[in-house]
């Protein structure tokens, strides 16, 4: 059923992981399966259909049966969690089965999340509740369709067991696909132990898998170039989050992917009314990972990554620090360029002009003043290219700033030398109508906990085509009704 495994990570020295077979679950039942992703990965559709008919698929995706050729392991890593360093975290409930080569020749990790209590579990149960598993499935697949680099969801399986968090909840296992699970925290684990050999092995693996062009560089520039390459992807990634109003919720260094993908969807959410101070995570009491802080937390995390590579950057430690610092100090300019590119696209602008940043900021300020929905404010611009659109105006409780902004925007559009219909089409192709709105996600998860997967399936269908209006599904585009908005999300660990 599975494609052939390539055990690249499992061939690293033993100190990089602990070999660990998934712990079987009581009554596995397949809840969701991502057939397009399976085909992309090279699954044999006929073999999978046979496994599905026989019930073997649920057992495999639950971890009850280890696929042929896999060598399950729990990866070692450390991390800064809310700014505090823990030298030993690791996969406390996840098991890497191995890597497969997809139909485009890319190496992809396949991991089971919620697969049991590993030696890294630190007293936890190693399991995952159904709600967080289905949230990660919905949100990661939505992010993929929205064009944001991300891990993917291949399957979700109910375990037939209960897990205990705030209250007893149904258990589940997520099959996650990633370009890799190399994290900033993976490098920190070995840096904390002074293991330069391991850091070099990791850096070379990261280059091999994600930045092969760097392998042609001499060692004296290769590893600093790796910092630059990871930084460029992080700047682009976070700018993409900001353009969608997405809040990750737990931007710890162990949740920062070297591949530049969004990873570990815990207490994540999408803003509705624009508020740069917005926080959704139940554990982020100080607002460290608030929406507006995400770009600068990414820079902080990148600085921690650069620190781990100091021994490889230059034999002279002072020179290495100086060179790495110069790279990290270039981040704000890189991020600003990425963010402005995102905002130009969201405003229908293809050309660059000097005042574009101020124009974008003014629209966000108008949204804040009007308590307007972030997603729909950008979406409804397509109807306002030539004249005020009632649907846009209705989003704003206070419209003074919007009325002042619209003529400025239209004057700027006039200099694009493109007809209004083309600009409107640009705007609809860039600004989604549907996002995983918190209320809809929570409704789907609550129904699933009661055994009803229909709301989940409907929401999954809606989110698969986020830029196209879908008949009879207008409610999925609307913000939460007053008093029903969801402002707290939980990570499920």
TrEMBL record:
<feature type="binding site">
    <location>
        <position position="264"/>
    </location>
    <ligand>
        <name>Mg(2+)</name>
    </ligand>
</feature>
<feature type="binding site">
    <location>
        <position position="176"/>
    </location>
    <ligand>
        <name>ATP</name>
    </ligand>
</feature>
<keyword id="KW-0464">Manganese</keyword>
<feature type="binding site">
    <location>
        <position position="90"/>
    </location>
    <ligand>
        <name>ATP</name>
    </ligand>
</feature>
<feature type="binding site">
    <location>
        <position position="264"/>
    </location>
    <ligand>
        <name>ATP</name>
    </ligand>
</feature>
<dbReference type="GO" id="GO:0070733">
    <property type="term" value="F:AMPylase activity"/>
</dbReference>
<keyword id="KW-0479">Metal-binding</keyword>
<keyword id="KW-0547">Nucleotide-binding</keyword>
<dbReference type="GO" id="GO:0000287">
    <property type="term" value="F:magnesium ion binding"/>
</dbReference>
<keyword id="KW-0067">ATP-binding</keyword>
<dbReference type="GO" id="GO:0005524">
    <property type="term" value="F:ATP binding"/>
</dbReference>
<dbReference type="Pfam" id="PF02696">
    <property type="entry name" value="SelO"/>
</dbReference>
<feature type="binding site">
    <location>
        <position position="113"/>
    </location>
    <ligand>
        <name>ATP</name>
    </ligand>
</feature>
<dbReference type="GO" id="GO:0030145">
    <property type="term" value="F:manganese ion binding"/>
</dbReference>
<dbReference type="InterPro" id="IPR003846">
    <property type="entry name" value="SelO"/>
</dbReference>
<feature type="binding site">
    <location>
        <position position="93"/>
    </location>
    <ligand>
        <name>ATP</name>
    </ligand>
</feature>
<comment type="function">
    <text>Nucleotidyltransferase involved in the post-translational modification of proteins. It can catalyze the addition of adenosine monophosphate (AMP) or uridine monophosphate (UMP) to a protein, resulting in modifications known as AMPylation and UMPylation.</text>
</comment>
<feature type="binding site">
    <location>
        <position position="126"/>
    </location>
    <ligand>
        <name>ATP</name>
    </ligand>
</feature>
<feature type="binding site">
    <location>
        <position position="255"/>
    </location>
    <ligand>
        <name>Mg(2+)</name>
    </ligand>
</feature>
<feature type="binding site">
    <location>
        <position position="125"/>
    </location>
    <ligand>
        <name>ATP</name>
    </ligand>
</feature>
<keyword id="KW-0548">Nucleotidyltransferase</keyword>
<keyword id="KW-0460">Magnesium</keyword>
<comment type="similarity">
    <text>Belongs to the SELO family.</text>
</comment>
<feature type="active site" description="Proton acceptor">
    <location>
        <position position="254"/>
    </location>
</feature>
<keyword id="KW-0808">Transferase</keyword>
<feature type="binding site">
    <location>
        <position position="92"/>
    </location>
    <ligand>
        <name>ATP</name>
    </ligand>
</feature>
<feature type="binding site">
    <location>
        <position position="183"/>
    </location>
    <ligand>
        <name>ATP</name>
    </ligand>
</feature>
<protein>
    <recommendedName>
        <fullName>Protein nucleotidyltransferase YdiU</fullName>
        <ecNumber>2.7.7.-</ecNumber>
        <ecNumber>2.7.7.108</ecNumber>
    </recommendedName>
</protein>
